[in-house]
Amino acid sequence: MENSYILECEGISKAFGGTQALADVELHIKKGEVHALLGENGAGKSTLMKIIIGLYKADQGSITFEGKPYSARGPADAMAAGISMIHQELNPEPYLTIAESIFLNREDVKKGIHFLDKKKTNERAEKILREFDFPKGARTMMEDLTLAQMQMVEIIKAVSCDSRVIIMDEPTSSLDSEETEHLFGTIRGLKEKGVAIIYISHRMEEIFEICDRVSVFRDGRYVGSREMEGVTTKELISMMVGRTVENVFPKQECPIGDVVFRVEHLSGKGFEDISFEVRAGEILGISGLVGSGRSETMRAIFGLDPLTGGKIYLEGKEIVIKSARDAIAKGIAMVNEDRKTYGLCLFRSLRENISLPNLKRKQKRFILNQRREKEEVLEVSKKLTVKAAGIEADAYSLSGGNQQKVVLSKWIMAEPKVLILDEPTRGVDVGAKSEIHTLMCRFAAQGMAIIMISSELPEVMGMSDRILIYHEGRLNGEVSRREILSGGVTQEVILAKEFGGK
Amino acid sequence: MEKKEKKILGMTQDEFRLFRKRYGIAMVMVAMIIILSIVSPTFRTAGNVVSIALQVSINGILALGVVFVITAGGIDLSIGSMLALTSVIIGLVLNATGSIPLACIVSVAATTFCGFVNGALIAKFNMFPFVVTLSTQLVIRGLGYVLSGGYSMSLANADFKMIGAGKLAGIPYPVFIWLAVAVMAYLLMHWTKFGRYIYAVGGNINAAEASGVDVFWTRTKSFVISGFCTGVAGIIMTSRISAAQPNIGVGYETDAIAACVIGGTSFAGGIATIPGTMIGIVIIGLIYNGMNLLGISSYWQTITKGLLIIGAVMLDMFTNKRK
C-alpha cells in the first residue's frame, strides 16, 4: 500500500432502478498526477464522478480522501472538502462578473454591517487571475468570455477553493487546438502544485500527451489501470471492449430492396460531409461516441435542427425538409433518444400520444372519428405489446420500456418509409429491449428502411445489416453484416474507428 | 370484506383517488349548491337560478376562450381591455350606421385580430405570454380611449339593448349565447384535431413539434379564440349597460382565469376540460350570488375567490402529483 494516493474509491456500486450502473469499481488517484478515465459511452465514468462530488449516493463502497473517509452531500460540500469538477457543459451565471462567480457564496463582507465588500473581492480575484495570466479583468461579465475562458474561470475557482483533486469531464470538447494547448499548460502548472486531475476524454492523443496514468471502465466495471508510458492505443481499446456478442439478438435476415433514402454531403452543427443510403428492408446501424455528430445528423434530417448543406433524396427524388412536419409528410419518422422531451406528452393519455402525428387521417370534415381512433390505437398498441392499464392511462404511469413502445406505436401508425431510431432501447429493461428488436426486424421485413443509432456496440453489431461509424462529425468507415459474421470485424475494430483510427 | 382495505364512500382508495381527480371540483359545486339551498330559501327559486346564469354568462364566455390559451401553455391578460375596445367600436359603428350586425361583426373582428397579434407575437418570437399580453393590454385599452376620445357614448338603439335584456321562454339571451359558445368550445377542444394539438403544445411543446404539430399556428389560434370570445362577451356587456365606454372591463381577466383554474385547468398547460371550466364558471357565480344572498360584503367575496383559486391549484398539485 503506497501512501501517495490522495483519493481512493473502493468497491463502489450504484444501481438505477434495475440497471447496475457501477458494480464494485475502484479508482486510485495519486497526488499530483493527471489520471485519465477511459471507457465507452455508459461505462460508468460519469456516474462514479457524480458519486465523488456528491450528486449521487453510492449504494455500496467507500471513498478515502487524504487518508480520511470521505462522502459529499453535494458539489458545494465536495468543493469545501477539496474536490471540484469542471463539467463538459459549462453552466455559468452570465450576468455575474468574473470576481463574483469565483467567489460566489464566499463573498467578502464589510465588518459589522455585512454589506458586500466588492473592492476586496475584486482585489482578491485580480490577484489569482494574474497568477494564471488571465487576459481579462475581474470586473468582466461572464457572458463576455469565450468558452475556453469560462472554463478557465471554473478552474481558477476550483484552485481558489484549495481543491486538491479536480475532475475534468471532456474539457477540450469545445476548445480549438491553441486553447487546448493553453489548457494543458495550466494542467501542468496545477500538477506541479500537487493537484491531482481526473481527466475524462475520448481523445486518445490527448490522453497520451497529458496523462500519467489511466483507468479503464467497461459496462460499469473497473477493468484495470496502466501507466501511460508503455501502454498502446490497441491495448487500451481491447480493455474497453471485451464484451462478447452473444447471439441474443433476434435479427432476421430479410430481402433487401431498392434504395429508399439517400443523403449526400450533409453538413450542419456538429457534422460535416455525411453521405449514405438506406434500402428497403435494411437496418442501417450508426455507431460513434456521444457528441460525434450521429444524433445531430438525424435531428437535422428530421427537420429539428437546420442543415447548412447537402441534399436528401427519398425514393430517388430530392426533398427539402424544413421542419419535422415536412419530414413526417414525406414519410420519415424519428424516435428521439430523449423520449421525455421529444417523444411524449407525459400527462396525456396513451391514446392521445399515439394518435398525435396521425390525426389528419382520422378527421372527417371537422370532427374527429374517435371510435376509429380508439380501434386503431388498440390495434397498434396490441401489435407492439404495450403493457398499460388501458389506452386512457397517462403516459407517465408507464415503465420506460412501455413508454418507448408508445413512441414506436405512434410512428408505426404513421406508416413511414424511413424510420430513424435514436437509442431505441436506452433505459429499457431486457425483456422490452428484445421485444423492440423483434419489432424492428418485423418493420424491416415489411419494407421499411430503418436507421438505428446506438451506443451499445453489441446492439449495433447484432441488429444492423450495415454499420456507419462516426468520428468527430465525419464518417470514419463502414462495415457490413457479412464482415461481422465472418469475424473479420470485431468490437475492437469498430471502437478503434470511433476513436479516429483507420 | 375479507381483505381489510379502507373504503371511502364504498370505493377502494385507488378508485376514490381517480373519482376525486375526475369529479372533485364537481363535488365542490354540488356541495355549495346543497348548502346554499339549505341556508337561503331565495337561492332555490327559479328566478335566482336564472339570475345566476345571466350573471355568469359574460365571464363564462371569456373563460371558455381563455381556457384554450392556458391549455396551450399561455395566458391572456388583455381580455379586459378587449372588452372596452369592443364597446367603443360598437358605439362608433352603431351611432354612425345604425346597423347592429355591422357593429357586431366589426367589433368581434377587431378583438379577434387583437388575439391574432397577441398570439403571433408570442409564437413567432417566443416571447413570454405574460409580458406580451400585459403590454398589449395597455395598447388596446389606450386604443379604446383614442377611438372614443375618452368619452362614454350612450346607445339609443332599442334593438341592440335586446341582446342583453331579451328573453326566450324566461331565459335571457346571454345565457343562450353562453351555452352555444360552450357547445362550440366543447366540440373544438374534445372532438377536433385542433383540440388535440392544443393539449399537445401545452403538454410538451417539443414533443408536439417533433410529432409534426404546427406549433406556431396552434399557439396563435388559441389567442385568436380568446379574442373572438372576448368580442362576443363584449357585445353582451355593451348591450347590458346600454353605453359604449372605454373604461369598462377592468379586472375581468382575473375571473375568467380563475374559472379555468378552479375548473381543473393546469397553469403548466396541457390539462383542462371544457366541462371542468363550466363548473369553474358556475362556482364563481355561486360565490357572488350566495354571499350576496347571505348579506356578506363584496370584500369577502374577493377574499373567498382568491382562497378558492389557491385551493384549486393545490388540489391540482396533489391529484396530479406534479413536482
What can you tell me about this protein's structure?
The complex is a heterodimer of chains A (502) and B (323). By secondary structure, chain A is of the alpha/beta class. Chain A folds into three domains: 5-92 and 145-240, P-loop containing nucleotide triphosphate hydrolases (Rossmann fold); 254-331 and 421-502, 3-Layer(aba) Sandwich (Rossmann fold); 343-415, no CATH class. Chain A has helices spanning 45-52, 75-81, 98-102, 118-131, 147-160, 177-192, 204-210, 233-240, 294-301, 324-330, 339-342, 350-355, 370-383, 400-413, 430-445, 457-463, 481-485, 491-498, and strands spanning 5-16, 19-30, 34-38, 60-65, 68-70, 83-86, 165-169, 196-200, 213-218, 221-227, 259-268, 271-279, 283-287, 307-314, 317-319, 332-335, 363-364, 367-368, 418-422, 449-453, 466-471, 474-480. In chain A, the strands form five sheets. A six-stranded mixed sheet of chain A has the order 6-7-8-3-9-10, with helices on both faces. In chain A, strands 16-19-20-13-21-22 form a six-stranded mixed sheet, sandwiched between helices. In chain A, helix 13 (370-383) crosses helix 14 (400-413) and helix 14 runs parallel beside helix 15 (430-445). The model of chain A has no long low-confidence stretch (mean pLDDT 89). The two termini of chain B are 36 Å apart. The model of chain B has no long low-confidence stretch (mean pLDDT 90). In chain B, the strands form two sheets. In chain B, strands 1-4 form a two-stranded antiparallel sheet. In chain B, strands 2-3 form a two-stranded antiparallel sheet. Chain B contains 13 helices and four strands. Chain B has helices spanning 13-39, 46-71, 79-97, 100-125, 129-148, 158-165, 173-191, 193-203, 205-210, 215-241, 252-262, 274-293, 298-320, and strands at residues 153-154, 167-168, 171-172, 243-244. Chain B is mostly helical and 323 residues long. The chains are: A alpha/beta (502), B mainly alpha (323). Chains A and B meet through helix 10 and strand 18 of A and helix 8 and helix 9 of B.
